[in-house]
C-alpha cells in the first residue's frame, strides 16, 4: 500500500495542494528516499475534520513544521500535547539519555509511550551541517524509512518536527517497542541468571534473533556502523525472540550486500561488547547462526535444494567447508577485535586531557589547577558503586580542605568519605632541576593519574584515580597531589 502523507503548514493552517505518495514497490523510488528533500514538511493544521491543530500548551509547536501520517500527528499534537521541543518542564517526560546536542525522553502521549529525541545545534559548525545535510532528526528519519523499506527490522518512526527558527531544535518521535529491551540488559537479566539447559535455551533464542537481524541488514546493504548491544533491542517471550535496530543516525546503505571486510568489522565490534557477559561458546554459536542466516537470506529468492541422502560424501564435504569457513571467520574477527580494542583505548586516553562528560579541568586559585573525574564509564568492567558521578561544583567544595593541609604534608589516607575512603599522595619539587623535569615529563601526580586511567582503559584492574592537582610558579609546577581510591 502506498503511504500518503498530508502537507500542512502548522502556523498558517493552510493545506498544500500536493500530496506525497511513496510507492515502495519501485526500487528506484526506494533509493530516492535517501535523497528526500529536507523538511518539505508534511504536518497538521486546523483545516481538517479531526483535531490537527497544536494544543495551546504546546509552546513552540505553533512555529514548527512536522512530517508523519495524519492520524499519528493528530494524536501527538492534539490537546493536551507536550511541547515536544522543550520537554524539560513536562511531568509526562522522563529523561533517558543525554549526549552532545541531543536529549532522549520517554513521553506518555495519547495514552501510549513514545521516545522523543530532541536535537539542538551545538555551534556554528553544527548549524552549517544542518543546513547542508539536514538536522540529525531528519537524517535518522530518512535512514529508518529506508531500512524499513529494505526489510530490515528497525524501530518505527512516528513523526519528525523542526522549528522554523534559524537555530531552532529538531525532534524525532519513535514508537516504544513493547517489552523490548537492550540486548545487553536482556542477556544479563534473562540469560546469565538461569543455569544449565534453561540458559542454553534462552541464549539460543536471543542469539538466533540477533543473528537473523544482522544477516538481514547485510543482505539488504544496510550498515548500522554503531551496532553495539545498546542499539539492538530484543523482545524475548516464551519460545520466541525478535530483534531490531535503534539509533540509526550513522546508518549507511549500498545497492549491493555488505562486503566481507565491513561484515568482519561489524561482527568484531559486537563480539567485543559481548565478550564480558557471553561465554566463548555462546559467541561461537552466534557466529554459526549468523552464517546460516546469511546463507538463508542470500538464497531466499531461489528454490530450495533438496538434500540427497545417497550423497553422504558431498554432505560431509560441505560440512567440512562450513567448519573451515567458520574457523577463518573467527580468526579474522579476532584480529579485527584486537585492532578495535586498541583504537577504543586510544580514544578513551584522549578524554583525559579534554573537558567533557568524563573529565574536567578546574582553576582552584593561587596557581592551583586540577583535573577531576566527573563520570565513570564502562561500569560493567569495573563496578564501583561507592564512586558516584560528580559535578565540577562538588569538586570545588572538596578541594579547599586538601589545600589547607599544605603542600609539604605527608601522604595520607583520608577518613571514610562519600567515596568510601581515599588516598591523597603529595609531591614537592626540590629545586629548579626537578621542576624542569616535571615540566618535560609531567609531575608524578599527573603521571600517576594518567597511568591508572590508561591501564583501566585497557580493561586491566588498577586503582581509581579520582583527581590530581598541580601548583604552578613562573610557568612550572612545584607542588602536586593525586587523589586515588582503593581497588
Features:
487 residues; 23% strand; 6-stranded antiparallel β-sheet; alpha+beta; disordered N terminus; Phosphorylase Kinase, domain 1; globular
Plain-language structure description:
With 487 residues, the chain is α+β, with helices and mostly antiparallel strands. The chain contains twelve helices and 19 strands. The strands form five sheets. The protein has a six-stranded antiparallel beta sheet, sandwiched between helices. A six-stranded antiparallel beta sheet has the order 14-15-18-19-17-16, sandwiched between helices. Strands 9-11-12 form a three-stranded antiparallel beta sheet. α6 packs parallel to α8, α7 crosses α9 (312-351) and α9 packs antiparallel against α12. The radius of gyration is 28 Å and the shape is globular. 32% of the residues are buried.
Unreliable sequence segments: 1-61, 301-305, 408-419
- Total number of distinct structural domains: 3
Give a quick account of the main beta sheet: strands, pairing sense, barrel closure. Answer: 6 strands, antiparallel
Write the CATH fold name of the largest domain: Phosphorylase Kinase, domain 1
Helix amount: 25-40%
The CATH architecture designation of the largest domain is: 2-Layer Sandwich
- The level-1 CATH class of the largest domain: Alpha Beta
In round numbers, the mean pLDDT is: 80
Tell me, briefly, the overall form.
globular
Class per helix and strand makeup = alpha+beta
Count the E strands: 19
Amino acid at each position: 500500500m502506498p503511504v500518503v502523507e498530508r502537507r500542512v503548514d502548522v502556523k498558517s493552517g493552510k493545506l498544500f495542494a500536493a500530496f506525497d505518495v511513496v510507492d515502495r514497490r519501485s526500487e528506484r523510488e526506494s533509493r530516492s528516499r535517501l535523497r528526500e528533500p529536507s523538511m518539505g514538511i508534511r504536518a497538521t493544521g486546523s483545516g481538517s475534520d479531526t483535531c490537527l491543530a497544536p494544543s495551546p500548551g504546546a509552546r513552540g509547536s505553533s512555529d514548527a513544521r512536522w512530517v508523519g501520517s495524519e492520524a499519528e500527528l493528530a494524536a501527538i499534537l492534539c490537546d493536551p500535547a507536550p511541547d515536544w521541543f522543550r520537554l524539560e518542564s513536562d511531568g509526562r517526560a522522563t529523561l533517558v539519555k543525554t549526549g552532545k546536542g541531543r536529549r532522549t525522553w520517554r513521553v506518555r502521549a495519547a495514552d501510549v509511550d513514545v521516545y522523543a529525541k530532541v536535537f539542538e545545534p551545538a555551534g556554528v559548525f553544527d548549524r552549517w551541517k544542518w543546513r547542508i545535510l539536514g538536522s540529525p532528526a531528519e537524517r535518522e528519519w530518512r535512514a529508518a524509512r529506508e531500512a524499513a523499506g529494505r526489510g530490515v527490522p528497525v524501530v518505527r518512526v512516528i513523526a519528525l518536527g523542526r522549528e522554523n527558527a534559524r537555530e531552532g531544535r529538531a525532534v524525532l518521535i519513535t514508537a516504544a517497542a513493547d517489552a523490548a529491551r537492550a540486548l545487553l540488559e536482556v542477556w544479563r537479566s534473562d540469560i546469565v541468571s538461569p543455569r544449565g539447559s534453561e540458559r542454553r535455551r534462552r541464549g539460543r533464542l536471543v542469539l538466533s534473533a540477533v543473528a537473523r537481524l544482522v544477516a538481514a541488514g547485510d543482505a539488504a546493504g544496510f550498515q548500522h556502523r554503531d551496532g553495539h548491544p545498546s542499539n539492538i533491542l530484543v523482545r524475548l517471550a516464551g519460545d520466541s525472540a525478535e530483534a531490531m535496530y535503534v539509533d540509526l543516525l550513522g546508518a549507511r546503505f549500498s545497492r549491493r550486500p555488505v562486503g566481507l571486510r565491513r561484515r568482519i568489522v561489524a561482527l568484531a565490534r559486537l563480539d567485543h561488547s559481548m565478550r564480558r557477559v557471553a561465554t566463548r561458546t555462546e559467541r561461537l554459536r552466534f557466529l554459526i547462526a549468523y552464517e546460516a542466516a546469511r546463507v538463508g537470506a542470500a538464497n531466499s529468492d531461489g528454490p530450495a535444494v533438496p538434500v540427497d541422502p545417497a550423497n553422504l560424501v558431498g554432505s560431509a564435504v560441505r560440512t567440512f567447508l562450513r567448519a573451515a569457513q567458520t574457523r577463518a571467520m573467527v580468526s579474522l574477527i579476532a584480529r579485527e577485535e584486537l585492532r578495535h580494542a586498541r583504537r577504543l583505548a586510544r580514544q578513551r586516553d584522549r578524554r583525559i586531557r579534554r573537558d567533557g562528560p568524563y573529565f574536567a579541568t578546574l582553576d582552584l586559585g593561587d596557581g592551583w589547577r586540577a583535573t577531576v573525574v566527573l563520570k565513570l564509564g564502562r561500569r560493567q568492567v569495573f563496578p564501583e558503586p561507592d564512586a558516584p558521578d560528580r559535578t565540577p561544583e562538588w569538586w570545588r567544595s572538596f578541594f579547599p580542605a586538601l589545600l589547607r593541609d599544605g603542600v609539604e604534608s605527608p601522604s595520607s589516607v583520608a577518613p571514610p568519605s562519600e567515596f568510601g575512603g581515599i588516598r591523597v599522595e603529595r609531591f614537592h619539587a626540590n629545586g629548579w632541576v626537578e621542576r624542569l623535569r616535571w615540566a618535560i615529563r609531567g609531575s608524578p601526580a599527573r603521571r600517576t593519574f594518567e597511568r591508572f586511567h590508561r591501564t583501566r582503559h585497557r580493561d586491566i584492574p588498577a586503582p581509581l584515580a579520582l583527581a590530581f592537582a598541580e601548583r604552578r610558579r613562573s610557568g612550572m609546577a612545584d607542588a602536586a597531589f593525586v587523589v586515588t581510591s582503593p581497588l
